[in-house]
Design goal:
Strand order of the largest sheet of chain B: 1-4
CATH architecture of chain A: Orthogonal Bundle
Number of domains of chain A: 1
Number of strands of chain A: 4
CATH topology of chain B: ABC transporter involved in vitamin B12 uptake, BtuC
Strand content of chain B: under 5%
CATH class of chain B: Mainly Alpha
CATH class of chain A: Mainly Alpha
Strand order of the largest sheet of chain A: 1-2
Radius of gyration of chain B: 21 Å
Oligomer: heterotrimer
Shape of chain B: globular
CATH topology of chain A: ABC transporter involved in vitamin B12 uptake, BtuC
Chains: A mainly alpha, B mainly alpha, C alpha/beta
Number of strands of chain B: 4
Mean pLDDT of chain A: 81
Number of domains of chain B: 1
Number of helices of chain B: 13
Helix content of chain A: over 70%
Largest sheet of chain A: 2 strands, antiparallel
Mean pLDDT of chain B: 85
CATH architecture of chain B: Orthogonal Bundle
Largest interface: A-C, 49 and 65 residues
Order of helices and strands of chain B: HHHHHHEEEHHHHEHHH
């Protein structure tokens, strides 16, 4: 492995090891603690220069909330791509299905008003239903057909929304979507960003806990087995079709969840929000974060979103203001997807385990060091007792 | 015994029919005839032309899948790059901006354009294979799929940055208004040209694969890579040649696309790729003749859906064809019913 | 062994005929043929495996042993012939499978027709909306049925003349475990996790248990981990449970694969060249282990080898294949003396 030489974790035992050990034993608690720390630090950090010069705290927190949506999307796609090894290239379609579900269920366009909280679950369920409809014919076959079918689906859904103006208002999108309300108070859409921000964090927190639990279960093991070797998994009794379909449907439902949230947050949905670019961005987030690694993917998604929404814009502003020749003429946002493309290829070639290697990867490095001991043990324990 | 209840005897003529394997061809012929009756001659020729372009692109998908079992997502964009390369060659190198009247000059310009584009694109394909896929040949299946989609985005965005996001005009060397009479039908010269060029390339490819040593190496590598290697086939070279040919054909398709439609856009490859891949699956992935047949069917489906409704439903119709194929005949029209279970 | 395996049978049909000659055959393969295009990989091979026996298939490379094996394991469908396991059809040539997808879409199409007859299109958006929901509901119900495959669904397919061969996981569920010629472990998983995957069908916790992280699941996982370590000890991998499969030496990888195959409590074990690539010492240890498996666990074993010496000691019955066909069959002693076998192995006519 290319990463053998770069094992920072293994070289510094002690506190770091202990924290890792503690967190793997109390997974749910550590997720809650971690997310609470994140929730507290993020609003404070933007009050510090240079961040406070870009925009005010409220704007930053709105940005974080949207970033949270991408984190949720990446966590969901990670179930499909990272944990089960299936390539889903139309993930934005399920995001769209969730969003339009809520738009139909609670907006001035349809004159229906179903509350937000049950719709979160309903949106997830509807997206899962479409996931099953798409996955059932495809997942009976070899894994790579899924990639092309989802690619097509991701293309068809926005087109269908665009061209069914009668039901979806076409390119203008559906507006006047109700905001969620809690204990009789509606979430403020401007001014106070905290309700949406905290809701998002709670959603991510719950999703992460559930995903960790799935990963540690018999189902998660079956996913990993399919990712490693589908035929061997089947030859050990894993019903690969059902198992793959579960991963695909759970991934879709997470996107549905994120879709309902974005509809409520923006109060308006347009087909443009769900183009192929979104599927591709989320895929890049998962790959960069480290496929299969829950925290890594979450952090990767956050970092990538911040780069595209803040860093590139600031870069433009910086070069414009500094009048750097040549560089000031470049709009870095135009290069965003080129960069993602290069990043995907480079990651696969050079560091397939992602920027933040998972526990499994670390253990892999660990056992490599123990190889000598392993061979000694081999001498002693090889013959059958 | 119990076996007799399980195995039903079939009449002799059915067996003979099955052995000839004419079914798929008759199916395609049936589709063509019905389509001709439904949409009329003018649209039919249009479908045939578009189908020929898809067929050329589909062959690249099917060849690559056949030999290394990879869905080369970048292939649609290779086709798009071909269209832009041809446009650049015609306008900036050969200095053309419209129809050429003089047949010898036209032939010469076309020949140069095809030759340059196909060679450049072949090289592009080989380079992609060398740097993005070859290092991952023994990696998990997911890895090359992800690099493929990455390469696809690199190509798309490079072209977008170079030529801008809006459609670009390409010189239509053969005047779109030039028409000839074929069997009593009034057909555009450019349509005839597209179909003739595509079909000739396909026949040439078929001969190449079946008659030459390299073709044999390609077929044996596709069947069993290790065995081929033991027999002395240079696997790396064979795969590189496969990419070269597939990409050169996509380049040719790009040239034809520009000549036929007169304008091209950087998003061209994404949708054409999807349709061409559907064509490859429909024909039986890994099968070159199948990909060609599938291309023509997809052309008919798209034009028919477009003619009967809104243009965009053409894409939806193609997607439905893909799902139906996977549902009812995952091995495709000409494919073997093997190797699809996990 | 356990009776739980009887619940899963891939094909609806049950064989009405009793065993013909009084011997209790565990597995009976009848005239298995497999063609790849024009090439016949296996031609008309029969094999009966009595309960508790060790049966071997030997033959030179390319004799069609592994193809036959893959047919029995449900990885490839036979071109003709069938396999019965404990009297029930497990593997056969799939027939009319193309009808099945029609079955999936039929209810939805009927619903559309009914809606049109009832005049749903005249009721505007509401009519279309309700029809759409019904169609979608029917479609998803059928697709879920097709994937979950309750027994009555398989039976219904059988009645309609749709015969589907068992898939690899059905074969495992029926009580057959296997190993691969070129070891197929889950390389980046630990030895213990590999065995736990093998135990997949033995574990009963469901999605809800996973999500609420129930006590039942914890108990089950703890017990499973313990049992996995026992199996590892059985094959001689004591204390190696946390090591990644890919870091194990070659011989130990073979042992691990064996442990994984045993994890589902199989009745019949299919071993594809279990000693391939091993040195003489390792080979002897593995052969001894195979003998112990039969004696201590009461397993029936089907063994594939191309090295004749390995099987002579342990087998009760040997089938010799060459060029896809059976060339000899019998006890090790009979096979050893058969001139045809000597010819196949040495390439010269026996004098």
């Amino acid at each position: 492995m290319s990463a053998v030489g770069q094992a920072p974790a293994a070289s510094s035992p002690g506190i770091r090891e202990q924290v890792a050990d503690l967190s793997s034993r109390h997974r749910s608690l550590s997720v809650i603690v971690g997310m609470t720390i994140v929730a507290a630090i993020l609003p404070l950090i933007v009050l510090v220069p240079p961040f406070n010069s870009f925009s005010g705290q409220a704007v930053w927190m709105d940005g974080f909330t949207i970033a949270g949506i991408y984190v949720l999307l990446a966590l969901g796609l990670n179930i499909v791509v990272g944990m089960s090894g299936l390539l889903d290239l139309g993930y934005a379609a399920f995001f769209a299905i969730g969003a339009y579900s809520y738009a139909f269920a609670a907006s001035s366009f349809t004159h229906v008003n179903i509350p937000f909280w049950p719709m979160l679950l309903a949106g997830a369920a509807i997206a899962a239903v479409f996931g099953i409809l798409l996955g059932a014919p495809t997942l009976r076959l070899r894994g790579d057909y899924l990639a092309i079918v989802t690619l097509g689906f991701g293309e068809i859904v926005p087109i269908t929304i665009l061209n069914s103006s009668k039901y979806t208002e076409g390119p203008n999108g559906i507006g006047g979507i109700s905001a969620p309300s809690l204990l009789g108070t509606e979430f403020p859409t401007t001014g106070n960003p905290w309700p949406f921000y905290l809701t998002m964090l709670v959603m991510i927190c719950i999703s992460m806990i559930l995903i960790y639990r799935l990963q540690d279960s018999r189902l998660g093991r079956a996913w990993a087995a399919i990712r490693e070797d589908e035929l061997a998994a089947a030859a050990n009794g894993v019903n690969t079709v059902v198992t793959k379909l579960l991963a695909f449907a759970l991934g879709a439902s997470t996107a549905g969840l994120a879709g309902v949230f974005i509809a409520a947050k923006l109060q308006t949905v347009t087909p443009n929000l769900f183009r192929f670019d979104v599927s591709f961005t989320v895929l890049a987030m998962v790959v960069l974060g480290g496929m299969g690694n829950v925290w890594g993917v979450a952090v990767g998604a956050f970092v990538v979103f911040m780069i595209q929404s803040v860093f590139l814009k600031q870069l433009n502003l910086f070069f414009d203001n500094a009048h750097v020749p040549f560089l000031q003429d470049i709009n870095f946002l135009d290069y965003q997807f080129l960069l993602y493309g290069i990043a995907l290829v480079a990651m696969m070639l050079l560091r397939p385990e992602g920027l933040f290697p998972s526990r499994r990867r670390r253990r892999e490095l660990h056992t490599d060091e123990d190889q000598e001991f392993g061979e000694l043990g081999d001498e002693l324990g090889a013959s059958p007792e | 015994m119990t076996t007799s209840t399980l195995r039903r005897e079939q009449p002799a003529f059915v067996e003979t029919f099955q052995r000839l394997r004419l079914g798929p061809y008759l199916f395609v012929l049936g589709v063509a005839i019905i389509d001709f009756l439904v949409i009329g001659p003018a649209q039919f020729v249009n479908g045939l032309t578009i189908g020929a372009i898809y067929a050329l692109v589909a062959i690249g998908y099917t060849m690559v899948y056949g030999i290394i079992e990879l869905i080369n997502f970048a292939h649609g964009d290779v086709f798009m790059v071909g269209a832009f390369t041809s446009m650049y060659v015609l306008t900036n190198v050969l200095g053309q901006d419209g129809p050429i009247k003089d047949p010898p000059v036209l032939a010469a310009v076309l020949f140069v354009d095809f030759a340059i584009t196909m060679i450049l694109l072949g090289i592009l394909g080989t380079v992609i294979e060398r740097f993005a896929y070859r290092p991952l040949r023994h990696a998990p299946r997911l890895a090359p799929l992800i690099t493929a989609i990455g390469v696809s985005f690199i190509l798309q965005n490079t072209i977008q940055i170079l030529f801008g996001p809006s459609p670009v005009n390409t010189p239509q060397l053969i005047s779109p208004t030039a028409r000839v009479n074929v069997f009593g039908l009034d057909v555009g010269v450019v349509n005839i040209f597209t179909i003739v060029v595509s079909v000739s390339l396909m026949i040439a490819l078929q001969l190449f694969v079946s008659r030459t040593r390299i073709g044999r190496a390609m077929r044996s590598t596709a069947m069993d890579r290790e065995a081929a290697q033991l027999m002395g086939v240079d696997i790396n070279r064979t795969i590189a040649i496969t990419f070269f040919i597939g990409s050169a054909l996509a380049g040719a398709a790009g040239v034809v696309q520009g000549l036929y439609f007169g304008n091209i856009q950087f998003t061209l490859g994404f949708q054409a790729g999807l349709k061409a891949f559907t064509a490859a699956v429909l024909g039986g992935i890994g099968n070159i003749t199948g990909a060609a047949l599938g291309g023509f069917i997809i052309g008919f489906v798209e034009v028919t859906a477009g003619a009967k409704g809104v243009f965009v439903w053409g894409q939806a119709a193609v997607f439905v064809v893909l799902i139906l194929t996977l549902l009812f005949r995952p091995a495709g029209l000409l494919g073997q019913q093997i190797g699809e279970r996990a | 062994m356990s009776e739980q395996h009887d619940t899963v049978v891939a094909v609806g049909a049950v064989d009405p005929t009793a065993p013909e000659d009084g011997v209790d055959y565990l597995l009976q393969a009848k005239s298995i043929t497999k063609r790849f295009g024009g090439l016949v990989a296996v031609r008309d091979v029969n094999l009966d495996i009595p309960k508790g026996a060790i049966v071997s298939i030997i033959g030179p490379n390319g004799a069609g042993k592994t193809t036959f094996f893959n047919v029995v394991a449900g990885i490839i469908d036979p071109s003709s012939g069938h396999v019965r396991f404990r009297g029930r059809f497990l593997i056969l040539r799939p027939q009319r499978t193309w009808i099945e997808p029609i079955l999936w879409v039929a209810p939805s199409l009927i619903a559309v027709a009914v809606a049109l007859l009832l005049g749903a299109q005249n009721h505007g958006d509401q009519g279309i909306g309700i029809t759409g929901l019904v169609v979608l509901g029917l479609l998803i119900t059928m697709l879920l049925l097709a994937i979950i495959r309750p027994p009555w669904y398989s039976l219904l397919l059988g009645r309609l003349g749709i015969l589907r061969s068992a898939r690899p996981n059905d074969v495992v569920a029926a009580g057959i475990g296997r190993t691969f010629q070129n070891i197929r472990l889950f390389q980046n998983m630990s030895a213990q996790e590999n065995v736990l995957v093998g135990m997949h069908l033995q574990l009963r916790s469901n999605l809800i248990d996973h999500v609420i992280s129930s006590r039942r699941q914890h108990r089950e996982e703890d017990a499973a981990a313990k049992r996995a370590n026992e199996l590892l000890r059985l094959v001689g991998l004591r204390g190696r449970d946390q090591e990644l499969a890919k870091n194990l030496p070659y011989g130990d990888q073979r042992r691990l694969e064996l442990a994984r195959a045993l994890a589902n409590d199989p009745v019949l074990l299919l071993l594809d060249e279990p000693t391939a690539g091993m040195n003489p010492n390792e080979t002897a240890a593995m052969t001894a282990l195979i003998g112990r498996l039969r004696k201590e666990l009461g397993l029936t074993i089907l063994l594939i080898e191309h090295d004749m010496r390995v099987v002579m000691g342990v087998s009760d019955h040997i089938l010799v294949m060459d060029h896809g066909e059976r060339i000899s069959e019998g006890t090790p002693e009979e096979v050893r003396r058969d001139p045809k076998v000597i010819e196949a192995y040495l390439g010269t006519p026996a004098s």
